[in-house]
């Protein structure tokens, strides 16, 4: 981090020096300068500069036409220049940042927070993010999308004065939440007996009214998450599909592996993934998606061999464990299952359609040292089936294990006017890996440069980190233009904002942003969010 601090300090001093060559500067330039300092300094371990910049921003004149004479701005920025004197570019303080990043490692449980009153949502988000990963949805459709795609562990719905909105969200996810043991909490403005009765009937686990005690709220959430963990530990079947779950998978794989090591008993696994499942959800709705998952599982369970084990691996991905079966035998078995399932027809609103799946088969052999390697081989074969057109079965071929030159691309774009943020994020995000994909990363200083590049019109899938406040074209304008020109299905968009209580955040979420993170941010937390959100683009 010392590199970023050195660049930041040099750039800040250079800006002030260049301003000294002019008789005056605009209020807009002053705002952009302080906004950039506020958002960047703490992210690279200089929180005292963020504090000074924040205080100065609160004193800025309201008029955008205000002109700062040289003597005036030099006096106004004297607290900043005094703070800069404390930091030498040759001896910046790094240790506090190292501890900060260590403390802010991403949390395991994911909380979905639903509401459009930005002050209330921001306060809740700030409180929760000290303990959990948090995603925000400002409307019902986004809440349902996040619930199904990101699979949160806990859901909080802020009713505020829009009771109908809150109950629509609750009713949309209640059945799925029950099956998945996902607790739902409603926040109301004041106790109301009839409202509470209606909420409990709709599927809410708990109701609290605002204002509430933060410690009590956190204790309630932790209590429910612990109950969820205990319940899930007691069962071996997936609640929705009836297939075995991951707990059973680990036990059965270890048993099969022990048999192989002791008696050289052959076994194979197949990774099965429904084709274009996100498109099905988007076209026909998540209820239809759940119905297809159930029908898929029923088909496999009814038609598999009696001694085979069918497991839900995650989302729309499943695994079939086939004891005493080599790779070729496994391929024939899975192809038979694919034929049966692909002949099944579904109907929604008068439209009839069929579905298929892709599969990758892998078998044990002496060069495999662990079950994780076996699963990885199955994943690679599945990836080849997807690349080759889907609706097929591929067997892992060790001769084709290095597929790097054929990998699909996930393109990560950083649109921010701060070069320090560019360098910081490039150094960290280029290390991210995604199964079956390679990462291409590019930075843009502003929205105009982004659109002029035509970079976003290439084939591939895109993750955009978009600064909310930039000169000329701001983040909302970039989002609006992007929505007009492209299919947002191919984009994951994370807003970077220094204004956590700004109504523009709600507008950004409505325009297609998937999440927002407030500057200054923890790099490790940002990496975790990019990784989590990008998963919905794969396959």
Automatic annotation (TrEMBL):
Residues with PTM 4-aspartylphosphate: 158, 467
Alphabetically ordered keywords of this record: Phosphoprotein
GO molecular function annotations of the record: diguanylate cyclase activity
Entry-linked PROSITE patterns: GGDEF (PS50887), RESPONSE_REGULATORY (PS50110)
UniProt cross-references to SMART domains, sorted A to Z: GGDEF, REC
CDD domains xrefs: GGDEF
Pfam families xrefs: GGDEF (PF00990), Response_reg (PF00072)
Domain GGDEF: 265-398
One GO process term, biological-process aspect: phosphorelay signal transduction system
All residue ranges annotated as the Response regulatory domain in the record: 110-225, 411-534
PANTHER family, per database record: DIGUANYLATE CYCLASE DGCM-RELATED, REGULATORY COMPONENTS OF SENSORY TRANSDUCTION SYSTEM
NCBIfam families documented for this protein: GGDEF
Identification of the protein by name: Stalked cell differentiation-controlling protein
Naturally occurring in which organism (per UniProt): Pontibacillus chungwhensis BH030062
Taxonomic lineage from the root: Bacteria, Bacillati, Bacillota, Bacilli, Bacillales
């Amino acid at each position: 981090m010392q590199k970023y601090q050195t660049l930041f300090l040099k750039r800040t001093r250079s800006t002030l020096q260049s301003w000294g060559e002019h008789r005056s500067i605009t209020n807009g330039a002053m705002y952009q300068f302080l906004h950039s300092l506020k958002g960047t300094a703490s992210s690279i371990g200089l929180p005292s500069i963020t504090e000074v910049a924040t205080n100065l921003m609160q004193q800025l004149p309201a008029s955008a036409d205000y002109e700062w004479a040289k003597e005036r701005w030099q006096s106004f920025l004297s607290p900043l220049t005094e703070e800069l004197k404390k930091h030498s570019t040759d001896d910046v303080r790094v240790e506090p940042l190292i501890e900060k990043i260590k403390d802010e490692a991403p949390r395991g449980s994911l909380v979905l927070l639903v509401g459009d009153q930005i002050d209330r949502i921001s306060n809740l988000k700030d409180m929760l993010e000290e303990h959990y990963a948090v995603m925000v949805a400002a409307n019902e459709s986004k809440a349902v999308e996040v619930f199904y795609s990101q699979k949160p562990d806990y859901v909080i719905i802020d009713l505020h004065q829009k009771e109908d909105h809150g109950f629509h969200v609750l009713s949309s996810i209640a059945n799925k939440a029950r099956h998945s043991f996902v607790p739902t909490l409603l926040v109301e403005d004041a106790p109301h007996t009839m409202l509470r009765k209606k909420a409990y009937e709709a599927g809410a686990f708990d109701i609290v009214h605002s204002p509430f005690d933060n410690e009590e709220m956190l204790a309630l959430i932790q209590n429910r998450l612990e109950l969820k963990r205990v319940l899930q530990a007691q069962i071996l079947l997936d609640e929705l599909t009836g297939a075995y779950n991951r707990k059973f998978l680990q036990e059965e794989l270890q048993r099969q592996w022990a048999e192989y090591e002791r008696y050289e008993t052959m076994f194979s696994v197949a990774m099965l993934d429904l084709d274009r499942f996100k498109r099905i959800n988007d076209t026909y709705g998540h209820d239809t998606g759940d119905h297809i998952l159930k029908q898929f599982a029923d088909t496999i369970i009814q038609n598999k061999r009696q001694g085979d084990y069918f497991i839900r691996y995650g989302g729309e991905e499943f695994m079939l464990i086939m004891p005493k079966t080599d790779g070729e035998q496994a391929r024939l078995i899975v192809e038979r299952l694919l034929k049966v399932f692909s002949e099944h027809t579904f109907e929604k609103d008068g439209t009839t359609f069929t579905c298929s799946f892709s599969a990758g088969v892998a078998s044990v052999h002496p060069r495999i040292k662990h079950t994780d390697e076996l699963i990885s081989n199955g994943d690679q074969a599945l990836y080849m089936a997807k690349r080759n057109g889907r609706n097929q079965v591929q067997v892992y071929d060790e001769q084709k294990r290095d597929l790097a030159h054929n990998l699909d691309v996930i393109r990560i774009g950083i649109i921010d006017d701060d070069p320090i943020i560019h360098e910081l994020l490039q150094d960290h995000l280029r290390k991210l890996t995604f199964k079956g994909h390679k990462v291409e990363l590019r930075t843009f200083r502003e929205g105009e440069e982004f659109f002029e590049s035509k970079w976003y019109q290439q084939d591939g899938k895109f993750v955009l980190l978009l600064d909310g406040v930039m000169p000329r074209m701001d983040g909302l304008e970039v989002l609006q233009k992007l929505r007009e020109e492209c299919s947002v299905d191919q984009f994951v968009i994370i807003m970077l904002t220094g204004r956590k209580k700004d109504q523009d955040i709600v507008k950004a979420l409505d325009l297609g942003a998937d999440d927002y993170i407030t500057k200054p941010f923890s790099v490790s937390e940002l990496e975790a969010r990019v990784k989590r959100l990008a998963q919905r683009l794969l396959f």
